[in-house]
């Protein structure tokens, strides 16, 4: 009987040690420093924006983030969503609805022509 009691005490102490080791490993894995998460968030923002607006030219959205900033661009994207929710825009010939990216660039062109030109010039440099 005495030996069984010793075994259970040893097993209990071993399981406590394993739990402590797991907790230590979790703590070291969760520690992250530096600006890396901000870059991932901006990348995710650009990719999500392109998917939402069905914009194939992601480099233009990257340029827009560089010129306007994330907050200004997200405000315009919300405006595009509102326009699309109300029925969207037709193209100049009236044959089809404009994609979200086209609406975005149209709004940007009317509001801030200099920023629009800068974004498109950088985009043409990338295309060539």
TrEMBL record:
Residues covered by region (Disordered): 1-38
GO cellular component: a single term: cytoplasm
Main location, first listed in the record: cytoplasm
Basic residues: bias regions: 16-32
Keyword Nucleus: yes
Domain Phosphorylated adapter RNA export protein RNA-binding: 46-124
Record's keyword annotation contains Transmembrane: no
InterPro entries: PHAX (IPR039047), PHAX_RNA-binding_domain (IPR019385), PHAX_RNA-binding_sf (IPR038092)
Location relative to the cell: Cytoplasm; Nucleus
Gene Ontology terms, MF aspect: RNA binding
Keyword annotations from UniProtKB, A to Z: Cytoplasm, Nucleus, Protein transport, RNA-binding, Transport
GO BP, one annotated term: snRNA export from nucleus
PANTHER family: CYTOSOLIC RESINIFERATOXIN BINDING PROTEIN RBP-26, PHOSPHORYLATED ADAPTER RNA EXPORT PROTEIN
Family per similarity comment: Belongs to the PHAX family.
Name of the protein described by the UniProt record: Phosphorylated adapter RNA export protein
Originating species: Papaver somniferum
């Amino acid at each position: 009987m005495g030996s069984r009691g010793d075994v259970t005490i040893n097993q209990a102490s071993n399981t406590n040690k394993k739990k402590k080791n797991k907790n230590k490993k979790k703590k070291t894995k969760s520690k992250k420093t530096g600006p890396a998460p901000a870059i991932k968030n901006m990348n995710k923002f650009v990719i999500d924006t392109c998917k939402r607006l069905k914009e194939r030219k992601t480099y233009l959205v990257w340029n827009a983030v560089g010129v306007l900033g994330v907050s200004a661009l997200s405000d315009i994207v919300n405006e595009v969503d509102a326009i699309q929710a109300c029925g969207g825009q037709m193209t100049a010939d009236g044959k089809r609805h404009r994609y979200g990216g086209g609406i975005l660039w149209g709004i940007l062109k009317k509001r801030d022509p200099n920023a629009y030109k800068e974004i498109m010039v950088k985009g043409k440099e990338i295309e060539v």
